[in-house]
TrEMBL record:
Location of this chain's protein in the cell: Cytoplasm
Gene: coaE
Organism (species): Acididesulfobacillus acetoxydans
Binding site for ATP: G11, S12, G13, K14, S15, S16
Similarity comment text for this entry: Belongs to the CoaE family.
Its job: Catalyzes the phosphorylation of the 3'-hydroxyl group of dephosphocoenzyme A to form coenzyme A.
Domain of life, source organism: Bacteria
One GO molecular-function entry: dephospho-CoA kinase activity
Name of the protein described by the UniProt record: Dephospho-CoA kinase
Annotated EC: 2.7.1.24
A biological process from GO: coenzyme A biosynthetic process
Major subcellular location class: cytoplasm
HAMAP family hit by this protein: Dephospho_CoA_kinase
One GO term describing the cellular component: cytoplasm
Length: 207
């Protein structure tokens, strides 16, 4: 299977691009969704997080309180590395399981939507990389409007990710999502055409 690593950063619009690709028939494996599944329903993961971070990050229903956990790990590099050590091996297991299911269903192409693709040295798990890029000030303003976070909170999140300008140097393909969505969609259509030329998708779903 040809696996495209889709990445970006907070406020870059990666989720919107993933949704466009999914709506046009390409399966999307979502790392963030896998994390939510693990934090909500995987007893082993929740137990390890309780042991590592204490009961303060566990809700009354036994699920991990993601917002409280985020405050802890984005303020402490060692705490963040501890969480990643718990979560990432399990995400990899889920990724492989989902890929096998897709291959059994005859799919030849899929998207691996993973924010920390470059930070976690996951480039070797995909055949090509697709970066959704915007200037850093656009990231900050979009997250401020969307989530109501303070600038300090946003900068703490950004500090935990490789700058998009650095990712831009590493990516195989870049989509500039700093303008209107119509401009982004035009770039996605062109990218789709390159996939079609390589026989990875059909031309049918193009707008």
């Amino acid at each position: 299977m040809w696996l495209i690593g889709l990445t970006g950063g907070i406020g870059s619009g990666k989720s919107s691009v993933a949704r466009w690709l999914r709506e046009h028939g390409i399966p999307v494996l979502d790392a963030d969704a896998m994390v939510r599944r693990l934090l909500q329903g995987d007893a082993e993961t929740v137990t390890m997080i309780r042991q590592a971070f204490g009961p303060k990050v566990i809700a009354e229903d036994g699920q991990v309180e993601r917002r409280k956990l985020a405050r802890v790990v984005f303020a402490d590099v060692q705490a963040r590395e501890a969480l990643e050590g718990i979560v990432y091996p399990r995400i990899e297991r889920l990724r492989l399981e989902e890929m096998r299911t897709l291959e059994d269903c005859g799919h030849r192409l899929a998207i691996w939507d993973v924010p920390l693709l470059f930070e976690k040295n996951l480039r070797g798990n995909v055949q090509e990389t697709l970066l959704i890029w915007v200037p850093v000030e656009v990231q900050i303003e979009r997250v401020r409007r969307r989530d109501g976070w303070t600038r300090a909170d946003i900068l703490a999140r950004l500090a935990a990710q490789m700058p998009l300008d650095d990712k831009r140097k590493l990516a195989d393909v870049m989509i500039d999502n700093s303008g209107d969505w119509s401009e982004t969609e035009n770039q996605l259509v062109e990218y789709w055409r390159t996939l079609a030329e390589r026989g990875l998708v059909t031309t049918g779903p193009l707008p």
